[in-house]
Amino acid sequence: MSRELRVTSFEKHSATQGVMWCSGLLIRAVTVVSVVLLGACASLKPSADFPTTEAQVAASEPGAPVLDIQSWQTAEGAKVLFVPSDALPMLDIRLVMDAGSARDDGVEGLASLTSALLGEGADNLNVDDIARGFEDRGAAFSSSSYRDMGIISLRTLSDPEFRDPVLALFGQVIGTPSFPQEALERIRTQMLQGLRMQQQVPGPQVEKAFMATLYKGHPYGGASGGALESLPPIQRSQLQQFYQTYYAAGNAVIAMVGAVDRQQAEAIASQISQALPAGPGAAKLDRARPLEQRQREHITFPSAQTSILLGNQSTWRGNPDHVALYVGNMVLGGGGFASILTDEVRQKRGYVYGIGSGFSAMASGGPFKVSFKTASENADQALSLTLSLIDQFVQQGPTDTQLEEAKTSILGSFALGTADNSDIIGQLGAIGFYDLPLDYLQQFSQQVREVTAEDIRLAFQRTLDAGNLAIVSIGPQAPEIVPVADLPAEGGEDSGAVTVANEASRGEE
Amino acid sequence: MKKWMLGSLLALWAGVAGAALPTHSFTLDNGLKVLVREDHRAPVVTVMVWFKAGSIDEAPYETGLAHVLEHMMFKGTERLGPGDFSKLVARYGGLSNAFTSYDYTGYYQQYEVSRLPLALELEADRLANLKIEDEEFHRELQVVLEERRMRTDDSPTALAWEKFQAIARPGTGYAHPVIGWRSLLAQLQPEQARSWFQRFYVPGNATLVIAGDVTREQVEPLVERFFAELPAGHTPPRPRQTINPPAGERRLDLALPVKVPTLFMMYNVPSLVTAEDKRDFYALTMLAGVLDGGMSARIETDLVRGQKLVAGAGASYSGIQRGNGTFTIQAAPNPGVTLDQVEAGLREQIEKLQTTLPSEAEMARVRAGVLASQVYEKDSVMGQAMELGTLSTLGLDLDLSERFAEELSKVTAEDVQRVAQEWLVPERLAVGHVQPEQGEEK
């Protein structure tokens, strides 16, 4: 119920709850993918006589209900995506604006600060009125900001007795924000303290350096949460201007999931859209360009581990190679325990607790990124091994077995994505924001079924060159590339497959 | 706060609770407890197995063992090689992981529902046939040491928290970290893991939870087929926990490479398990809500926005624990504010709870938040399985969540004041100050 601190490294959770330690990689949120599985799914050859249930499971066609996504545009130009669901008496609303830090225009932290001040004051309402107005009725309001997106979320009970006053308040809060000077000073101070806390730990520093290295000269390269020197000069008038421009109805996607009918949903969308400033969608930004030769950055830091990020600008929304890269990456490093990187670097050698790779398709480009942390004495070996594994995969692509298993895994995981409203709302926001077709997920699954090992190999060769990947690290000393002692044989062994289901919502994290 | 609002919330909640999802409970002859929650919204299923074996069950020389064993549960059986478990789950589109806490260890798999037989067979197999090989054990121990470096050793706040816990919960199994003290963790041996497994991983010490698009009729034969043959073994004794006498006021001052100071405060209070008067649990829950139940609660209103002492602060009551509960406060000051000033501000808040009754509006707001969140929590099948597993493992009533709102509605402002006076007292308090090292910038 209580708001998390803005200071991200505060680790509040570990202090207030019984600490939990997981044996896996980060538990990935699974979001919605809807498909009807027609035709035969790739038939798996059960390995041996154990597990005895494998043949039965391999033969059963996984269910995957199709979401009834309804979409329309409001008079003011906002795009609406709606999925009715009356299983629970609740309603989720998410506004996704093209208002992320990509729109900072050189003022690092402007988008983030604007977002943080929503809910701090509106016409005739102070922050206490707003907080009580939502919380007295059991509603939850929040705002957040990423590179592409500014997001405003509301969760309320759907019974009109609660919903109506909550929506009226919501309209005021998002439509008439007052950006009080007092709140600006207070939240700026909180963000500055948060940035100082980030300097205590390696993770945030190396992430920032990675984006700055890959996106030098591009809006994605800026520090999306602001910097110690960029936040202090920001003026209230800049926030007001940013809000008027980027929180305009024409720049908004309104996603809704819950226990309202179409007519009610239309009225709600219309009310929200009218409350926002009038204005068009933001102009598209130039797509970032890949690095053409290796860049190396190292931050010296007295940590026990060395954290290493490898990557390059390598994709974008609308990339025709998207599915091939997605499926291939599941084999390489996106499939958790079933992927080559986890198998070789963690399972076989124990160098890391977690390692993973991914393509994040954002609006104006997106990185391929591999990340891991390892004891500093193993950093040279872990880095060199990982680079060799990537290079080997780019050269060879997946084996037929790896591909078949990856496909079965992806198609089998779709149902998990339709399980709850929280997942559905995230998917709708992404489909709306990135202008994907409403049946995107069905199209995606069809393309997954059709992609070949050769498609993947060629797509990886067009996209990645292991020799160009930036190496950004933090730790006692910069890791060196050394000969790899025991690289797996060419052709590799079968490494099982993957899990997905959060396809459309990937991109922004 | 208007009275009508709570009234209609209660009415709404009664509707939701009335339509509570079916939950079935049965026990196999070997002692395995099975819970089935039917939720037919989507064709998915979550399978979890919970063991009454957490880090509080570890002897002082074997800290971290419960968690290391959890890792070894993925490293192979008589029939599956290391890593095959995870690969099979992934191949059929599932997700799996596990968690170790102070009180328990739990394992889960999530799938599209037609994968249920595989999920159950895999769980039963590692219970019956787990193989802990020396070489695999030592390799996995390296992974766990990396996990410790990542989560604790490279984070000064996490290191400080670990040291603080040692004085905040003295003489209990909660005083050592779940992941284990570094030097002891590094010396764990495979035979310790084998003996831990034999001692705790028996059917009578476990709960199997199956939640999702399933019925009892459908799952019971499958559960019988895979789990009934497990030998009952000997269910290990676990002592009954009671409320501890006050340990006396404790204080820890640490200088660490932090840029922003941090304050920790922790009171030793009853949990739902150890409370002699169960109403104390509900009153402490209300108290925590009044102090930090949201943006309109006292910490945000008075300390963050009013006095501007802190950049961030949080208070919470952890009352669902096997041993005693904790009432925890953490705060990071604004620049120019000392930890002493923050501590004084927080102690003033505690004193206010002891001397002045919370308003009816505050109490109503906390209840509204709890009632609404009970509706929202039903959105997650995994969340429902987690709740059932926790309650069963701690020996609490499974209908706790259905009764929760009703019990909270009985708590009066006087009850909140009474528990503040009785439990939030200096002799039950530990305070930790974490300051930048000498020469560090403030």
What do you see in this structure?
- The complex is a heterodimer of chains A (509) and B (442).
- The relative contact order of chain A is 0.17.
- Chain A is globular and about 70 Å long.
- Chain A has two domains: 206 residues, Metalloenzyme, LuxS/M16 peptidase-like (Cytochrome Bc1 Complex, Chain A, domain 1, 2-Layer Sandwich), CATH 3.30.830; 188 residues, Cytochrome Bc1 Complex, Chain A, domain 1 (2-Layer Sandwich), CATH 3.30.830.10.
- Chain A is α+β, with helices and mostly antiparallel strands and 509 residues long.
- Chain A contains 17 helices and 14 strands.
- In chain A, the strands form three sheets. A six-stranded mixed beta sheet of chain A has the order 2-3-9-4-8-7, with helices on both faces. A five-stranded mixed beta sheet of chain A has the order 10-14-11-13-12, with helices on both faces.
- Helix content of chain A is 38%, strand content 17%.
- In chain A, helix 5 packs parallel to helix 9, helix 10 packs across helix 13 and helix 12 packs across helix 17.
- Chain B folds into two domains: 208 residues, Metalloenzyme, LuxS/M16 peptidase-like (Cytochrome Bc1 Complex, Chain A, domain 1, 2-Layer Sandwich), CATH 3.30.830; 187 residues, Cytochrome Bc1 Complex, Chain A, domain 1, CATH 3.30.830.10.
- Chain B is built from 16 helices and eleven strands.
- In chain B, helix 12 crosses helix 16.
- Chain B starts with a helix and ends in a 6-residue tail after the last strand.
- At the A-B interface, helix 1, strand 1, helix 2, helix 4 and helix 6 of A face helix 1, helix 2, helix 3, strand 4 and strand 5 of B.
